[in-house]
Design a protein that fits this description.
This protein has 7 helices and 5 strands. The chain is mainly α. It has a 3-stranded antiparallel β-sheet with strand order 4-3-5. Strands 1-2 form a two-stranded antiparallel sheet. It is elongated.
Amino acid sequence: MTSEADRWYDDDAGPVVRPYAMTRGRTSHAAEARLDLIALVIAESRSADDDADADRTLSPEHLEIVELCREQPMSVAELAADLDLPVGVVRVLIGDVLEVGLVHVSRPVPPAELPDAGLLRDVINGLRAL
């Protein structure tokens, strides 16, 4: 006879929770435009326990994102890999904790704003000439 717990947990696969259940059926979030694969997610300095008590809508996955980012800033791609979840699901979950104010996102400098490689070579050559 199979118990209720055996139906929802498989030793090899882990808990059986579908991604759409984690995101409540959502496939995108308003903050998704800011969440490319290399965007860094940084936890706010507030206590996660205080905020978790204040907002009962946070899932274990939300809290795990905050805890991972509390240890060190992580990119969206790293979070998806560490959580073993699809990137789309992680983006929605990050958007949720971003909305609540538990994390903030730092986007990398766009390539158009980086110095020209030729200019950098000229500076290096000038320094070598000194």
